[in-house]
């Protein structure tokens, strides 16, 4: 389902008119038109303003806002405000406030303080959603329904008694019988066997490490419990406002939300939307942005998606609110568009004068319209409008990265062989290495079909790998793909039980080796890897004792606990090959291995591009290409167009005709339309 009521790329932000006097609203719409705004999100935190007491609704102000926006030609992403129930609700239902693992109940006064298992909350959420849908389901300004806000931020799981009862029902559906649950959880260990469903509680605070299988199921349950509430609102909106797509804003980035299984959630929304905020102090934060955008596009199944929030400049909730430099806002915005977004939206339209986020940047900053930020917002609105021809086109990927939220949840539980071997860090490092090779990357679930369309598939970390995942990856390599797997992968099954036989369990056959022993390194310790005719590599944190059984060693350890043994291997399998990297390599080492693996996969690298000059291509249904070049450096860069889709085209942001080579000034973005 597309946003057919929005016939342009989306540009705008969260609009919170209830924070401002009504006489300012016409001025807001005037400025929105000046900036080229096409859509705003309304009502996200408005429950108290819409239902000041139970069952009493005050829609007059929202009627006037939506009518005013419609008159100004601005579409609306209308929210159900179910992320912040009103104070009166919590006074009547304090049990709907979430309880943490230590048994402390959080209080009202922030946002997202919700027990998703609360019957009272569910009834109240349905009531306000129904009232909104009945009143505005056919409003001419409506383009999109926006359920809740950033599920899982700041808290997802509640450990109260209502959640415990809900958890037991969820477990019965998942496991069927108590015997099956006891087997899955390995409760024979430490005498944890359950004889009655009522004996099972959430994994509350325990004297020492709690059962890891129970913790893993609890993480799944918490994601599913919130998803049940989303579905309830979504289905009601589908019934009362047919034809209008329903979404909720994800935070698809391992740095920003770690509690939601977005593979599961992506199948439930009509349009995937995402919020992304730079980690401002990272030297190369544009790489994390690219990773989040690629991951979001993948969660959307390579269908259209939308960046629903990012920032014009500084955010207020990081340790230091670092302002974006001139041009950075446009580069950030257009990088998301390059990687598939159908526009660029912000939090928020007008900077708040009060509340927790008053120092968060906005499209209309505290400095007003005589400011650099405002001038850049207006220019970006014009740029987004100029990119209208690419609406509906798709981003072209060169490779794929395997990612699984459940595996991440499992690996980060207590008492793993090394606290320093982190799933998120490995994913980000391997992604950055692909980015530095100027490869555009999809993300895939380990059991996903269709891997064969990617000549190269990289597995940065897959501690939890089912037998189905192992078989899927084996078929991929046998069919002609090049698979690259990183250390500590394939170790446990879906219940966090070690696979039978030597490590790496589910991946042993595809890799053609066994891991006899893990060899975590001491803090600060490094090991060296060498191979005939190959560059020397350096690793830290992790090594393994590897025994080959069909795989060919490419690099060996020259020192450390696995000295003399294979370190990086290649297993010829059918028409393809499976590589294994048994150590935590540094940036240069990852680049060296991936350069060799891309050659194995038959991928030609664009080594004429400087580091941090980003080149991404979108292609329309008619075959027309749109080549994005984002220059994150302080020097002008040139790009050979003939090697990237066609030597001739029109640069859409300037209107200039280009032939042969494209010059991109320092810090600038260029988008070339390359007709088929």
Terminal-residue CA separation = 27 Å
pLDDT < 50 stretches: none
CATH H-level name of the largest domain... which superfamily?
A: Glycosidases
- Major sheet description: 10 strands, mixed
Cα Rg: 26 Å
Overall number of strands = 29
What is the count of helical runs? 17
What can you see in these coordinates?
The structure is a single chain. This protein has 676 residues and is of the alpha/beta class. The protein folds into 4 domains: 10-158 and 219-389, Glycosidases (TIM Barrel, Alpha-Beta Barrel); 160-201, no CATH class; 399-601, Class I glutamine amidotransferase (GATase) domain (Rossmann fold); 613-674, Immunoglobulin-like, CATH 2.60.40.1180. It has a 10-stranded mixed β-sheet with strand order 12-11-13-14-21-20-19-16-17-22, sandwiched between helices. Strand 13 (456-459), helix 15 and strand 14 form a beta-alpha-beta unit. Helix 5 (119-136) runs parallel beside helix 8 (212-240) and helix 6 crosses helix 8.
Overview in brief:
The chain is an alpha/beta fold and 676 residues long. It contains 17 helices and 29 strands. The strands form five sheets. Strands 12-11-13-14-21-20-19-16-17-22 form a ten-stranded mixed β-sheet, sandwiched between helices.
Structure keywords:
alpha/beta, Rossmann fold, ten-stranded mixed β-sheet, nine-stranded parallel β-sheet, 17 helices, 30% helix
């Amino acid at each position: 389902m597309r946003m057919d009521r929005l016939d342009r790329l989306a540009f705008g932000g969260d609009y919170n008119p209830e924070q401002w006097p009504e006489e300012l609203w016409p001025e807001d719409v005037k400025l929105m038109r000046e900036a080229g705004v096409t859509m705003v999100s309304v009502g996200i935190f408005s429950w108290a303003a819409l239902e000041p007491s139970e069952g009493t609704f005050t829609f007059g102000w929202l009627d006037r806002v939506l009518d005013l926006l419609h008159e100004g030609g601005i579409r609306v992403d209308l929210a159900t405000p179910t992320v912040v129930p009103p104070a009166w609700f919590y006074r009547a239902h304090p049990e709907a406030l979430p309880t943490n693992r230590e048994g402390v109940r959080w209080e009202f006064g922030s946002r997202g303080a919700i027990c998703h298992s609360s019957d009272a909350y569910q009834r109240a959420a349905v009531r306000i959603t129904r009232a909104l849908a009945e009143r505005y389901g056919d409003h001419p300004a409506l383009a999109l329904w926006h359920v809740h806000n950033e599920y899982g931020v700041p808290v997802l799981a509640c450990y109260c008694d209502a959640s415990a009862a809900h958890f037991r029902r969820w477990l019965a559906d998942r496991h069927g019988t108590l015997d099956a649950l006891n087997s899955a959880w390995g409760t024979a260990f430490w005498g944890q066997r359950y004889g009655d469903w009522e004996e099972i509680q959430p994994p509350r605070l325990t004297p020492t490490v709690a059962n890891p299988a129970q913790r893993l199921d609890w993480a799944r349950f918490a994601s599913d419990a919130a998803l049940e509430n989303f579905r309830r609102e979504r289905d009601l909106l589908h019934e009362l406002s047919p034809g209008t797509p329903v979404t909720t804003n994800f935070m698809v980035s391992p740095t920003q939300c770690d509690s939601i299984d977005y593979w599961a959630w992506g199948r439930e929304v009509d349009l995937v939307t995402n919020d992304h905020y730079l980690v401002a102090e990272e030297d190369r934060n544009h790489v994390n942005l690219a990773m989040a955008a690629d991951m979001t596009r993948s969660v959307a199944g390579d269908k259209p998606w939308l960046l629903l929030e990012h920032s014009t400049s500084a955010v207020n909730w990081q340790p230091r609110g670092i302002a974006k430099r001139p041009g950075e806002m446009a580069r950030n915005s257009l990088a998301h568009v390059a990687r598939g977004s159908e526009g660029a939206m912000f939090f928020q339209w007008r900077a708040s004068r009060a509340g927790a986020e008053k120092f968060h940047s906005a499209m209309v900053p505290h400095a007003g319209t005589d400011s650099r930020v405002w001038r850049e917002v207006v220019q970006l609105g014009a740029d987004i409008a100029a990119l209208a021809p690419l609406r509906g086109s798709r981003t072209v990927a060169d490779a794929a990265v395997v990612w699984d939220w459940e595996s991440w949840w499992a690996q980060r539980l207590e008492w793993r062989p090394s606290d320093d071997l982190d799933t998120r860090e490995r994913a980000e490092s391997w992604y950055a290495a692909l980015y530095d090779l100027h490869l555009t990357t999809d993300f895939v679930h380990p059991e996903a079909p269709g891997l064969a369309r990617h000549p190269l598939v990289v597995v940065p970390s897959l501690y939890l790998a089912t037998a189905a995942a192992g078989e899927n990856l084996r078929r991929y390599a046998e069919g002609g793909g090049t698979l690259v797997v990183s250390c500590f992968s394939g170790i446990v099954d879906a219940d966090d039980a070690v696979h039978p036989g030597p490590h790496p369990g589910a991946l042993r056959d595809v890799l053609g080796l066994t891991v006899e022993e893990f060899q975590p390194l001491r803090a600060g310790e490094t090991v060296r890897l060498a191979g005939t005719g190959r560059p020397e590599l350096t690793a830290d944190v992790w090594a393994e004792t590897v025994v080959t059984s069909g795989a060919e060693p490419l690099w060996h350890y020259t020192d450390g606990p696995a000295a003399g043994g294979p370190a990086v291997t290649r297993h010829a399998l059918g028409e393809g090959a499976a590589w294994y990297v048994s150590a935590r390599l540094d940036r240069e080492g990852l680049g060296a291995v991936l350069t060799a693996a891309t050659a194995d996969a038959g991928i030609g690298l664009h080594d004429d591009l400087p580091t941090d000059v980003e080149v991404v291509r979108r292609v329309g249904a008619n075959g027309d290409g749109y080549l994005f070049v984002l220059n994150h450096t302080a020097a002008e860069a040139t790009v050979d167009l003939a090697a990237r889709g066609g030597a001739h085209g029109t640069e859409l942001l300037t209107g200039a005709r280009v032939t042969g080579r494209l010059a991109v000034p320092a810090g600038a973005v260029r988008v070339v339309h390359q007709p088929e």
